[in-house]
């Protein structure tokens, strides 16, 4: 009887399918259905029916339902196996779409399936109109590759928003991590356009804390979102410095938010009174109107002002509280924070459910093509699997005694005269700016903005003094150029020939110019040169919305320290320090795109600031790499707190934003660590370290035998020892003296780590390898042992507070060196060269071998005899130091041996260096 009932049910489904014009053609698939008697019957499902079921799934997702709920709703019209087949096919389609988006994303639901089916192809859609605006930009028009990248990244964000047509309440909170001055606004313009096309009715944008930042964002969105389809948008704020939200000027909320067609845009300054007025306006609307108004909230620079800085037991800070209040007004709402410095955001107390922790998703945008950021300019430390990076040769040093002129004066002290403010390096920076911009004019950049940044203090009084001094300097320069002053000409020529020409020759795209062209163009440039003071006391504010391009010097402080884009920024003079990672990174207005004049940019900072930006570039890369790893492991934002490396004299963010933070340590598990800092001028230390290596090798040969063949031709000149006891490694670590600048690399840290893992049977059989070139200068290590020295370079700009005498090697190990003792673990015994491994069909990384191949008992100690260049003269060394290259050959006081360790993956990890992590996740 059950079998008859089952067949009848399938027949009814077949009849329903016929009524819906589904056919069972020869192309149909047969799906096996299992009855409760475990008998298999083949039910024919056409491709059209499967397509119908997939579309039904998509429609139901758009209503806010989960896949489980959708499956239950489909059961009256489809068999379980039909539904399962359709769901599987839908997931395959979705996975294929996700695979086209190279965006690292953490999701609250590992099995997340989006309601979003992609941008509208209609020529009248907001997205398509936005692409036309971008393609026709006057400066830096977008090409197809840039549009495609923006499409992918913005669709990833939209896909994680609450479905605007959801029939159940949905509140989503997410974070988008970009780069400073990298085009985050373009991303949220795209997100807004696609969201509006999909059905969002109200768009709220929080745009910084200053009027000029709000105006800049308002103008950008007006150009890209409003003007292309003005009839579809109601704007509650204006393109005007004083155009922030004013309740008395706004249209009644019920009238605007209750309209069926179009959408409403409001761009708000993060100011408590402005937000209070906006909330009061919202409260005039009926609850029904607000419940039926899907709302998207974009919080630009979301780590500033938005984060609650009060204790959990106290009321939240005003701006944070009002943002939370706004989100609670709507039934369907999505909050998306945008920032390049996410430290405060990821440290929000995740246990406070109505706060702004990005619980639902975190999207880390890829670095855009052509973007010049922290690591490009300042370099960074080694981040596995990459070595250290040197910065571009565009950084110039402000001497400490000159920077001291700009230091805050004792309270009550008189403000200095302008002459005292103009340090020699600042005069040089001004001349440098004139030379660079004259060269830009030679490259036919007459219609482009050209800006110089002078940021020395947050004090308005100091800005006014500098403004007066620069007014006089520029006036004198104008008169000198009109009279063709020999002194001015000589100054500019010296800068051009000693600085700009040698640097530009290193860039392939730069065209060679003689000084005659520079001098000729300087006449027109100096004639139009302006000086602008940008702060709240300014009578004339900085604007790039003008008939002719802006060519000038901008002096300011806080308004120049976050969010504000300085168009055509060519020369920067910056001495204002900060202890906070986020504040210092945001102050750097020089990051961004310089496609046709990156070689002409110059950044004047102190040695201390150079070192700090070098550290920050390392921190940035580690955070992004960690997000990438977490995304690959399908981890949720709330499961794993991002680890942020600490600095001895800096803080991750303000202490008030770190109340949920705790201090922890990182592990050596599956890592390669290199002692990149070395005291190369300390001959006694170098000789003692060579002796400690010789003693190690003597002991190894005494107890474990002579070197063995690695099995690789690459390493034929190297010395490899296997199955070395950890006791000999401990003895070596006691004797070898590492520089204190190696934060992650101290004898005690490594010894403690090995001791702990020895207790669980790991790191018990070591490999020791003395690496060698195949030819060159030989190096004796006692008892007839000989290798060839390796050439390495040092990073000239990298300094350490912990050991100022230490020099930073760019890298110690070469790619694939760590495979020297793994031949017995490779699947192909015939491989003789490591480059054969790196060219397999599915490329693998060094990290892969540490995590999956290196045995847990087998640690690896790598030793490198460095070429000390003992024959180098003082004059040659001075030439290397003064050259524009950011690296130089080693010049050591004696023969030197560098050290690196490779550790396998372990689940019994011991911590190493300090980091900050959210203690509530």
Fold blueprint:
Blueprint: H1 2-19, E1 29-34, E2 40-45, H2 47-62, H3 67-74, H4 80-99, E3 104-107, H5 126-135, H6 144-159, E4 170-177, H7 184-198, E5 202-207, H8 211-226, E6 233-235, H9 253-257, E7 263-268, H10 272-282, H11 287-291, E8 295-300, H12 318-328, E9 332-339, H13 343-346, E10 361-364, E11 371-372, H14 374-378, E12 395-397, H15 400-403, H16 418-421, H17 424-442, E13 450-455, H18 460-482, H19 486-504, H20 515-527, E14 530-534, E15 551-556, E16 569-574, H21 581-587, E17 592-593, E18 602-605, H22 607-632, E19 644-645, E20 661-667, E21 672-674, E22 677-678, H23 683-704, E23 719-724, H24 726-735, H25 747-758, E24 766-771, E25 778-780, E26 786-788, E27 793-795, E28 807-809, H26 834-837, H27 846-852, E29 860-866, H28 874-882, E30 887-889, E31 896-902, E32 911-918
Parallel strand pairs: 4-9, 4-10, 5-7, 5-8, 6-7, 8-9, 12-18, 13-15, 13-16, 14-15, 16-18, 24-29
Antiparallel strand pairs: 1-2, 3-10, 11-17, 19-32, 20-32, 21-31, 22-28, 23-24, 25-26, 27-28, 27-30, 29-31
Helix pairs in contact: 2-3, 2-4, 6-7, 7-8, 10-12, 17-19, 17-20, 18-20, 23-24, 24-25
Structure description:
With 921 residues, this protein is an alpha/beta fold. Helix 2 crosses helix 4, helix 6 (144-159) packs across helix 7 and helix 17 (424-442) packs across helix 19 (486-504). The protein is built from 28 helices and 32 strands. It starts with a helix and ends with a strand. The strands form eight sheets. An eight-stranded mixed sheet has the order 3-10-4-9-8-5-7-6, sandwiched between helices. A six-stranded parallel sheet has the order 12-18-16-13-15-14. It is globular, with a radius of gyration of 32 Å. A hairpin with a 5-residue loop joins strand 25 and strand 26. Helix content is 37%, strand content 17%. The longest helix is centred in the last third of the chain and has 26 residues, at 607-632.
């Amino acid at each position: 009887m059950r079998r008859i009932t089952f067949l009848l049910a399938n027949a009814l489904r077949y009849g329903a399918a016929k009524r819906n014009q589904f056919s069972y053609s020869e192309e149909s698939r047969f799906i096996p259905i299992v009855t409760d008697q475990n008998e298999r019957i083949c039910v024919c499902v056409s491709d059209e029916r499967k397509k119908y079921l997939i579309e039904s799934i998509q429609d139901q997702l758009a209503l806010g339902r989960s896949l489980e709920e959708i499956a239950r709703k489909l059961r009256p019209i489809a068999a379980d196996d039909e539904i399962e087949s359709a769901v599987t096919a839908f997931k395959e389609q979705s996975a294929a779409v996700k695979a086209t988006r190279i965006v690292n994303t953490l999701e609250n639901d590992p099995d997340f399936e989006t309601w979003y089916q992609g941008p509208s192809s209609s020529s009248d859609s907001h997205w398509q109109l936005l692409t036309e605006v971008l393609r026709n930009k006057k400066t830096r028009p977008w090409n197809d590759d840039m549009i495609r990248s923006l499409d992918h990244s913005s669709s990833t964000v939209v896909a994680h928003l609450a479905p605007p047509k959801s029939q159940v309440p949905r509140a989503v909170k997410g974070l988008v991590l970009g780069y400073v001055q990298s085009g985050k606004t373009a991303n949220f313009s795209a997100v807004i356009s696609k969201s509006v096309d999909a059905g969002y009715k109200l768009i709220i944008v929080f745009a910084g804390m200053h009027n000029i930042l709000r105006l800049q964002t308002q103008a950008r969105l007006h150009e890209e979102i409003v003007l292309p389809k003005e009839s579809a948008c109601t704007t509650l704020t204006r393109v005007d410095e004083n155009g922030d939200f004013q309740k008395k000027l706004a249209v009644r909320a019920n009238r605007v938010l209750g309209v069926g067609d179009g959408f409403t845009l409001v761009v708000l300054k993060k100011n408590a009174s402005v937000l209070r007025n906006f909330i009061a306006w919202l409260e005039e609307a009926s609850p029904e109107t607000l419940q039926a108004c899907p709302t998207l909230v974009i919080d630009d620079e979301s780590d500033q002002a938005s984060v609650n800085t009060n204790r959990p037991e106290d009321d939240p800070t005003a701006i944070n509280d009002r943002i939370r209040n706004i989100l609670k007004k709507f039934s369907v709402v999505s909050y998306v924070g945008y920032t390049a410095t996410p430290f405060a955001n990821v440290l929000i107390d995740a246990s406070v459910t109505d706060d702004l922790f990005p619980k639902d998703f975190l999207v880390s945008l890829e670095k855009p093509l052509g973007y010049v950021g922290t690591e490009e300019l300042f370099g960074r430390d080694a981040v596995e699997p990459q070595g250290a990076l040197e910065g571009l040769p565009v950084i110039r040093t402000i001497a400490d005694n000159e920077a001291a002129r700009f230091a805050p004066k004792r309270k009550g002290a008189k403000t200095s005269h302008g002459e005292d403010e103009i340090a020699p390096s600042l005069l040089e920076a001004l001349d440098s700016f004139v030379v660079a911009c004259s060269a830009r004019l030679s490259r036919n950049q007459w219609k482009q903005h050209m800006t110089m940044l002078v940021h020395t203090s947050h004090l308005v009084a100091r800005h006014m003094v500098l403004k007066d001094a620069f007014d006089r300097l520029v006036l004198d320069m104008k008169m000198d150029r009109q009279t063709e002053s020999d002194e001015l000409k000589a100054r500019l020529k010296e800068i051009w020939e000693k600085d700009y020409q040698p640097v530009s020759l290193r860039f392939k795209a730069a065209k060679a110019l003689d000084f005659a062209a520079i001098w000729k163009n300087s006449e027109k440039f100096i004639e139009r040169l302006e000086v602008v003071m940008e702060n709240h006391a300014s009578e004339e504010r900085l604007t790039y919305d003008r008939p002719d391009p802006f060519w000038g010097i901008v002096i300011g402080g806080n308004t120049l320290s976050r969010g504000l884009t300085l168009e055509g920024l060519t020369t920067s003079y910056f001495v204002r320090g900060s202890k906070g990672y986020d504040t210092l990174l945001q102050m750097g207005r020089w990051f961004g795109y310089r496609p046709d004049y990156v070689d002409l940019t110059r950044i004047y900072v102190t040695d201390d600031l150079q070192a700090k930006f070098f550290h920050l570039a390392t921190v940035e890369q580690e955070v992004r790499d960690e997000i990438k790893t977490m995304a690959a492991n399908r981890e949720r934002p709330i499961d794993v707190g991002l680890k942020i490396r600490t600095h001895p004299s800096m803080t991750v963010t303000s202490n008030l934003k770190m109340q949920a933070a705790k201090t922890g340590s990182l592990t050596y598990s599956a890592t390669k660590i290199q002692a990149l800092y070395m005291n190369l001028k300390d001959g006694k230390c170098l000789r003692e370290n060579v002796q400690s290596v010789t003693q190690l090798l003597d002991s190894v040969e005494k107890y474990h035998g002579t070197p063995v063949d690695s099995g690789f031709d690459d390493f034929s000149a190297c010395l490899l020892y296997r199955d070395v006891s950890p006791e000999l490694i401990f003895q070596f670590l006691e004797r070898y003296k590492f520089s204190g600048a190696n934060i992650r690399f101290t004898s005690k840290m490594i010894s403690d780590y090995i001791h702990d893992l020895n207790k669980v049977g790991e790191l018990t059989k070591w490999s020791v390898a003395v690496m060698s070139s195949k030819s060159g200068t030989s190096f004796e290590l006692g008892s007839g042992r000989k290798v060839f020295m390796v050439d390495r370079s040092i990073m000239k700009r990298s300094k350490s507070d912990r050991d100022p005498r230490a020099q930073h090697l760019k890298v110690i190990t070469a790619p694939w060196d760590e495979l020297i003792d793994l031949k017995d673990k490779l699947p192909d015994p015939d491989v003789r060269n490591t480059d054969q491994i790196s060219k397999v069909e599915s490329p693998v990384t060094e990290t892969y071998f540490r995590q999956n191949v290196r045995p847990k008992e087998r640690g690896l100690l790598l030793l490198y005899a460095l070429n000390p260049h003992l024959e180098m003269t003082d004059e040659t060394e001075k030439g290397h130091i003064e050259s524009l290259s950011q690296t130089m050959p080693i010049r050591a006081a004696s023969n030197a041996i560098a050290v690196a360790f490779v550790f396998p993956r372990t689940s019994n990890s011991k911590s190493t260096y300090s980091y900050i992590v959210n203690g509530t996740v």
